[in-house]
Every structure is written in C-alpha cells, then in structure tokens.
Write a structure and sequence with these properties.
Elements (H helix, E strand, L loop, with lengths): L1 H17 L1 H17 L7 H31 L3 H26 L6 H5 L3 H11 L8 H11 L5 H11 L4 H24 L1 H9 L1 H18 L7
Helix pairs in contact: 1-9, 2-9, 2-10, 3-7, 3-8, 3-9, 4-8, 4-11, 6-7, 8-9, 9-10
C-alpha cells in the first residue's frame, strides 16, 4: 500500500505540473494582477512574493479542504467505497483524458464537466469582490481560498485520485501534491506574466502536455475498463 500511495502522490504532483498550463488560463490572470496592483519601489519583490505565496497558499488549501471533505464523507462506508473504487478510478482516468484533449486543443468536452461546479461557484464568486483590490497578504490568502473552488476539470480529475485514498490524511496529501505541482507555473506567471503567456500559447507545448495527460488517464483506467 505504501508504494501505491507514493505513486499516487507523485502522479498527483506530475498531473499538477503538466496541467498547469490549464491553471494559467483559469487562475493566471488573477495571479498576475496581484503583481500589477503593487506599487513599484523598494521592497517590491518581497511584497510581490508574499502576495503570490499567500494567494496560492489559499488556493492549494482549498483543494486540501475539498479532498478532506470527500474523504470524510466516505468514512463509515468503507466497504461500499471499496466497491466503487474501479468506477472512481475510471472516472478519474476519463477526466484526465478529457483534460488532455482540451490541453491539446483537440476537443473541449471537459467544459461540460466543469459546468457541474457552476452552481456552487455562483454563490462563492460574489465573495471574492470583498478582497479586490488586494492590498495585504491576508486578503490574497482569502481570495486564493475562494478561487480554489472555481470549477476546473483538472482539479476534479485529481479529486478522483484523492477519493481512492484509504484515509483523510492521504486524500488531503494527494491534493496538496497536486497543488504543489501547479505552484511553479502560477508563481512564474506572477513574476513574468508575458513569458508564461507565450509558452501557454505555444501549440507544440500544449499538444505535448495534452498527450502526456491522456497517457496518465489511460494508465489510471482500471484494466477491466480497457477490455
């Protein structure tokens, strides 16, 4: 089991790293705006780093909370959850394949999945206005905590991994690893938004990451689903 969990954690990190181009489209704009709103001058880089770390800390924290809630709901129904495991793994694999197709710009069917979270986001999104414009790290942290609930197929696919974990801590750790995988690109877009945008729009890069996510999705599928 330890080997399986290690593989799950490392895979979650790689999914976040490979799929972070999608994150730039969903969260990159708000991350870049944190830097643009700061006054230039002495201590700018320190203030910029604090804002970016706070925002992304809140965002990743919301992923951990969401995974923990799913794991808590499954507690007490372990036998039924075990029976559902092949279906959950299939759903996670299919979502990764959909994300790969979206990343490669071959098909945008994942948008239909993302619409499932729209009702909740409609209730939460007005709260984000309380923290804009962001002037303090505490506001950036709160904004990131809310922004993490933005409907996202990449997050949903990784939650499928989290749902397969045997405990609340391991489910939370899965989403933590995923969030850490997205962190380099999200920090980079705050420091150098223009360069990251060019990379995001590079067709070869998008197709390569799309193919890698599709490969992850196929690998995730239970063997029975491929027969």
């Amino acid at each position: 089991m330890a080997g399986e969990l290690y593989l799950g954690f490392s895979s979650a990190f790689l999914i976040g790293l490979l799929g972070s181009t999608h994150c730039l489209g969903m969260c990159g704009g708000i991350s870049a705006s944190l830097s643009m709103s700061l006054p230039l001058g002495r201590g700018f880089r320190i203030r910029q780093s604090l804002m970016l770390l706070a925002f992304n800390g809140g965002r990743i924290g919301s992923y951990v909370v969401l995974a923990s809630l799913i794991a808590i709901l499954s507690t007490g129904a372990a036998s039924q959850w075990a029976q559902l495991a092949p279906y959950l793994r299939t759903a996670a694999g299919v979502l990764l394949i959909l994300m790969g197709l979206s990343m490669g710009q071959w098909w945008q069917g994942v948008r239909y999945v993302e619409k499932l979270g729209a009702p909740l986001w409609q209730r939460l999104s007005p709260l984000t206005r309380r923290f804009i414009p962001v002037q303090r790290p505490s506001q950036a942290l709160a904004l990131g905590g809310l922004w993490g609930w933005l409907p996202c197929g990449l997050v949903y696919s990784t939650l499928g991994w989290a749902a397969l974990q045997p405990s609340v801590p391991s489910a939370a750790a899965t989403m933590l690893c995923f969030g850490l995988g997205t962190l380099p690109s999200m920090l980079a877009t705050g420091y150098a938004a223009a360069g990251i945008r060019r990379l995001q729009q590079h067709q070869g890069f998008r197709k390569l990451t799309g193919l890698l996510l599709i490969a992850f999705g196929i690998w995730t599928l239970p063997l029975s689903a491929l027969i």
